């Protein structure tokens, strides 16, 4: 029962701190015979990597991943896969104020309260750098899924930044990779950019965002009720990402405002099986996938590290103020997109394996 | 690794179907020496029990709970506690249409797709009757918390029904127990009631709701990063409840619209330790409790069983229509209130025990 | 992480005490579609039941098992199966000495030291009555195995009692069911009986035994290295049985006395795949089954409750003596035979499911 | 549920193969504030390291361990500790026969049967090199135990090699570190050495051994019945070590030959609490420690790699013969001593933490 692990049969354990020698993921339960290499993993890490454009932090981290185990002649062996990313810049430096002061909105104070230890070097274990390990592990999951369920496509994208949202009528899957915001609506992407420019340069402020991750080409029958439901595991997976404050499946919170008549996804027969008149359910009923697209959204709070002065206290309990300098993402939501995709990939692979183990791969709709 | 269990050290496994002989919960990991009896558990079950007023289903189920193990002379022994609720009405009856037809919005079709089995008797395992077992287990957790953390108070209440929401300025903790909606705003409760009357009688429809659960008197330091964060576990716990489509902590989805400056919960020193200027975080930073109120919200979709005709298919794949007769809750959100409270109680007790096991009970802020 | 559970995907949680209202097992992860009923389970419980002949305790317990959930129309549904055995005789009675005194060799003192609670009613949770729940769960596993791996045969038998052992040259599978000792050597069974008569009547003493459980018709490829090895899980399963002090696979402890040349199980090709010149390994290499018979042995210590006076202390720390009256098995090893079989069945089913989940059911030698 | 992990709250996951770039252990759940460094861990690894004297393999592996995470200013932080040992010699070389042939007694054939993959490089994941990771993790456990339970002493030693056993009357704790066999009886150590010389040089053979591990200064109350009993977890821990075929607690298999009268450990009051007239139980009753010494033994089979020709088959199913050349330990039991100690340390720390989490650290005998 490791609290740094997730997954039932495809089990990922992440380790490492922001400023330690390295961080990584121990991935257990990947089926044998999956073709994967470091270059394949690197493409996903590069998507998350900082410093790629003006909208993200200007820190430079190569985030190069090494596979240390679990492979033989280019394929997985079914034994644990160790993924390591060395931290290139660990030199001793002046951490200034934050050695003694707690940054509001960060986990500084709660780690201190829980563990009695204050690893002030970039947040230690609570740093979002941990998500690099998730993205690496997600790459392994993607490789397995590509081989096992070739039609499955997992795509993350930003649907809201601050008060600005996308126009669903303008939704274009191909647009997502064309702008810095992984936004499916080109016009919204432009608005996001202008707003973020102003926030960063003029307002010294940051902003939240909503990320949506969709899985298309889903098999039906994935999800293990009652406490390993597909939506339960997705909710946990997304909520565990740094700065996430809300998770929605399908209609999400808006389901509260609907009536039963409006919310019904009516069923009819299509050429390849059941089809639905709508997808309010987000592709999941009773915790099990219907075969429709699985749609998950999560809200990322605005970056807590801002250049505006805020009141706080020190380790010894004295009141003071803090301005968090340094190169921070004005909208951490952007870099949360590949992290959300990685979590979706891990959860789906896990549930394919779990279905095999609990029901059998040739039974039910997945067979 | 049971998929019908939740919790790390305080581990609850529920079992049973809507129309089997009985259902219940196997509760393991409750500390020894906790005073609890069936009457204490029954009060929470009665809160969830159907047929108590016109706003919930008119079915009559006594939902009487028996404690079959884990007790000696009125106190828990530290061994598994078996809680059983017999299903009083299991007579063979005419299930009519639903033997062959899938009810839209229900798990009928996905259980069939996954397991190849169609337990048409009231939804079988996917029925919300399963939540009675959670409420019983939550009663054990509440008894332990009452003894271990006497100041802790867990309260659930409805903050939205359909498009109608509460006025936070009218929030009154004492009002919650006074109306049929567990609503903290008396005026909103009246509006809820009028709206539900109309939906039930005139519109033959149902409606969704948002439930909020708050834990007051929280110890700081609860939560086990990275994948056993307090908010992660709460998100999973709430999302696992039938019909839930979204979960929020603190600001929740609205955090996306905030700026970093507005979202900052500034810290200062109070007489008993750190205090905060606001609680956008919902009492959790980096997955660990700050000592502020923990605030969780979840959206319950409208009841899928309605008296309006909807299109669907049969087990053999023929298109047809269905009207779901029977006595159904027009707003399942009402009865979800005690379920949400039970899940909060279980998660908090679990994290108190986990903190002891991982850190030690006299270390950190909890000691 | 329940400490009253075992198994990875086929997960059994037992509950209940010697003198509570009931005891049982919550069985999760049984595949759907398995035909099983109470009568099938009862045959295994009857094999363990006390009072069947003069060699076991003369207590009468019907040990009738009820299936409370997880079934529909005579087949498992893939949801949790609740098995309950009511304790028929719970009347308040005079427990005499043992309310205050610790019985040497029993868990009385350690439960007191650990939990601070003294459930003196027949040992409470530490009673061997708990193994009835294992046997019931093992019946579920046997039903699944019969359907999934029809050639598999699991047989337990006694190979040693006190200093008396069987003659392997006289080993007869058919003899096992013919004597009260489940002994494959008729002559040894007679010797066991004579010895036990004397111990019980004249010596007021008890004796230990060695039980062997063999699985024939094994699939190759079962077992999940490194910490879910088939032998690791079997060792844990057997060591968890009351009074067991040693577990052996194949040669067991005697392997220490062998040389590498003698211990080698040479490999050649048989008509249906690899065959071996011998089975020193007990059918397991590197934690994975070879397809040979899996052979496990465990030693059961002599019953601690004897009619001879022994020194002990009271709860309050005073020195005293105790004679444990009552109707006790002079050799608990006899009734441990069906328990060992049940554990073997549970472990093997679990590893078949795990292989499917981790590798895939059509891969490797199992496909 | 990683099959490459063990432990409940102190959870160790090992990774890596014999000839990959590195191997190691991800250690989660170590309490914060434990002082430990690489030099401390290295002393235990050096004890296991090959090539230290003529009795073990002459391969040279520095087995230098690096701590990559989980530390801050010389103390553990409560976050995952990554321990990495680089494999210094991975050059491509001629593996000769074993690329195609299965070595009898090794896991070559079962890994092939299970995974359909043949990592012939030194056994891949099934190599005993994996135990280096255990020893490193055990070092973390030892550091925590030294700080939390200073009186606890864990000592492993060889009590039998082939047919030669120690004389318990000559048992000397101080002798253990003085000979190459970690043997507490100097005379037996000499006999072991002479015998091994002959086996190695003249007989081209190998031999098995029995290792005993004792924990002195034990707290009472450790162990979580029913399926997390202290002896259950120790049995699993020891059986998971490469080449182990049997595990015993206290009297072990010999308990079968005892009578109840002889086996009784009578209880009386000592100056510091309960004391016992003997320790047949090996310090554990009902799965919970009594406070007496915990005594575990395990049998290690003779090294399967010997210079004598043995029959086997190839991957393609052809019959052939094999002689396993290379530098192999003639008695792997010698190097199993520090591995057994490491497993004992991990299990005991885990149960101290578990007791805290399930019962509370100031309750029961441990408080």
From TrEMBL, chains A, B, C, D:
Its EC number is 4.2.3.5. Reduced FMN (FMNH(2)). GO terms for molecular function: chorismate synthase activity; FMN binding. Its cofactor is FMNH2. NADP(+) binds at residues 48, 54. Pathway: Metabolic intermediate biosynthesis; chorismate biosynthesis; chorismate from D-erythrose 4-phosphate and phosphoenolpyruvate: step 7/7. This reaction introduces a second double bond into the aromatic ring system. This is Chorismate synthase. It comes from Thalassobacter stenotrophicus.
């Amino acid at each position: 029962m490791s609290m740094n692990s997730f997954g039932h049969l495809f089990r990922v354990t992440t380790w490492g701190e922001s400023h330690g020698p390295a961080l990584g993921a121990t991935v257990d339960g990947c089926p044998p015979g999956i073709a994967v290499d470091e270059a394949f993993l690197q493409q996903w890490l590069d998507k998350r990597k900082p410093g790629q454009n003006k909208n993200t932090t200007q820190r430079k981290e190569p985030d190069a991943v090494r596979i240390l185990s679990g492979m033989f002649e280019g394929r997985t062996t079914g034994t644990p896969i160790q993924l390591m990313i060395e931290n290139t810049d660990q030199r001793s430096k002046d951490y200034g104020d934050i050695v003694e002061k707690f940054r509001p909105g960060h986990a500084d104070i709660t780690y201190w309260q829980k563990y009695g230890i204050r690893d002030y070097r970039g947040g230690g274990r609570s740093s979002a750098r941990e998500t690099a390990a998730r993205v690496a592990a997600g790459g392994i999951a993607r490789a397995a899924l590509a081989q096992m369920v070739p039609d499955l496509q997992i795509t993350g994208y930003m649907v809201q930044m601050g008060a600005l949202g996308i126009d669903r009528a303008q939704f274009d899957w191909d647009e997502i990779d064309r702008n810095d915001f992984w936004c499916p609506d080109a016009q919204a992407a432009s608005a996001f950019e202008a707003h973020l420019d102003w926030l960063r340069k003029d307002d010294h402020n940051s902003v939240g965002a909503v990320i949506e991750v969709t899985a298309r080409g889903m098999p039906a029958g994935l999800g293990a009720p009652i406490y390993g439901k597909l939506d339960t595991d997705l909710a946990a997976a997304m909520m565990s990402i740094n700065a996430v404050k809300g998770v929605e499946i399908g209609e999400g919170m808006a389901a509260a405002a609907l009536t039963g008549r409006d919310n019904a996804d009516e069923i009819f027969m299509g050429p390849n099986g059941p089809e639905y008149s709508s997808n309010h359910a987000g592709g999941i009923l009773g915790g099990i996938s219907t075969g429709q697209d699985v749609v998950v959204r999560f809200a990322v709070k605005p970056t807590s590290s801002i250049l505006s002065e805020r009141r706080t206290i020190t380790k010894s309990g004295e009141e003071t103020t803090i301005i968090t300098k340094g190169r921070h993402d004005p909208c951490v939501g952007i870099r949360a997109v590949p992290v959300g995709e990685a979590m979706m990939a891990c959860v789906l692979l896990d549930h394919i394996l779990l279905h095999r183990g609990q029901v059998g791969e040739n039974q039910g709709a997945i067979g």
